[in-house]
Amino acid sequence: MQTTATTRVGNAPDLLSGILSVQVRNEDKITEQDRLYCQRQQDLLYETLDRIDRWYAIFKEEAERYREEKNFKYEDNGKVSIRNYHFNYSGKDDYSHNEFKPFDLLNELVGSNYNANSNFADRIISYFNKTYNVAVPVPAVDEKTLRMGFRPVYQTYVDTVIEHLGGKSFRETAEVELLARFLKTVQPARWSKAQPELKRDKITFPGIVYWDSIHLEYHGEYEISYDSYGKVNAFCEGIAYGSDDVINGSIRIVSGLDERNVDITRWYDLTTTNAGQIKFYKNGRIDIRFKDSAAAGSCFKRLRLDEITLQED
Q1: Start-end of H helices in 200-247
Q2: Per DSSP, what are the bridge partners of residue 9?
Q3: Is 35 helix (H, G, I), strand (E, B) or coil?
Q4: 8 Å CB contact between 186 and 196
Q5: Which residues have C-beta within 8 Å of that of residue 293, sequence separation ≥ 6?
Q6: Would you write out the chain's pLDDT as a tens digit for each of its 313 residues?
Q7: Cα 122 to the center of its chain, rounded Å
Q8: Rounded CA separation 278/255 (Å)
Q9: How crowded is residue 278: how many other Cβ atoms within 10 Å of its Cβ?
């Protein structure tokens, strides 16, 4: 019986080489739901850009009536460049000085074109960041070179997302980025003599939260400062991951917390399973109490807190 050859015969490439040479498109690495969202955003964008282009064409036609008088030029992005916007009406006996001049609106439409393209880039990237808890930077759209009539495709931004992953899965990337944010948050300051410490069923974290001094002075309440909120949010995100292996945690895991009036005398319950409670202190320290010492130890190692060392002067 003759079998199908899988090795090279003469000059014909073997089957395995053919399979390995097939490149997987980045678009095939996202879900159907992802594609539907991106395509919907692209369709909505094109509708708006079509309207912008239609108005631009109308006003551009009007602007051409004044080309000899103003000797203007168009920039690469479609903006009208005129050294002197003032028209010389001396010696004219008509009423042309009362006519509508389209130049400002042309430039406004160019700005709208840029904003729409920027919003599209932000929405596509932000969708993946929010859906998969990753932190892909939003590519900047060059306002000076963006042409009127340009139509971006969402695949460009999908490529940016996949490139950011660097061969890892969304989950793997989210974990790496989350852990980096958390370790940056809990890393003791250079002058600090204390570091995260495991104490049986608790982990203590010095110097995490800063209180709004003005609110404290006038209202006697411990409000998480504006600059400190993101730090506390990243801290809670890390605790949720370290204790329960979830990557979508936030300050919302603290039940009943009022960020403008934190009660430093009580333990707040957490919505996580293995980390049970959290306590805030006047000096910025935060304690986490776990269901048992094993859970505390597991979280301590998962968050690589045993690798933190004090910085030398």
Answers
A1: 213-219, 226-244
A2: 12
A3: helix
A4: yes
A5: 200, 201
A6: 444 444 344 454 555 554 444 455 788 889 999 999 999 999 999 999 999 999 999 999 988 888 777 778 899 999 998 765 555 555 567 666 656 678 889 999 999 999 999 999 999 999 999 999 999 999 999 999 999 999 999 999 999 999 999 999 999 999 999 999 999 999 988 888 889 999 999 999 999 999 999 999 999 999 999 999 999 999 999 999 999 999 999 999 999 999 999 999 999 999 999 999 999 999 999 999 999 999 999 999 999 999 988 776 5
A7: 8
A8: 10
A9: 22
> Exposed, middle or buried, 283 (CB in 10 Å: 0-12/13-18/19+)?
exposed
Q: Are 212 and 225 in contact (CB under 8 A)?
A: yes
In angstroms, rounded to a whole number, what is the distance separating the alpha carbons of residues 60 and 128? 38
Region label for 281, one of left (φ > 0), alpha (ψ between -120 and 50) or beta (otherwise): beta
Strands 202-205 and 268-269: unpaired
Residue position matching structure tokens 């460009």 = 156
CA atoms within 13 A on the CB side of 172: 7
Amino acid identity for residue 73 in this structure: K
Query: Six-digit token pair at 55?
Result: 């108005």
Neighbours of 236 (CB within 10 A): 25
Whether 55 and 65 have beta carbons less than 8 Å apart is answered as: no
N-term to C-term CA, the chain: 78
**DSSP reduced 3-state for 165:** helix
- Which amino acid, 238? G
Sequence-distant (≥ 6) Cβ neighbours of residue 236 within 8 angstroms: 249, 250, 251, 252, 253, 254, 278
In the chain, the amino acid numbered 170 is F
Structure tokens given for 286: 């935060």
Amino acid letter, residue 279? K
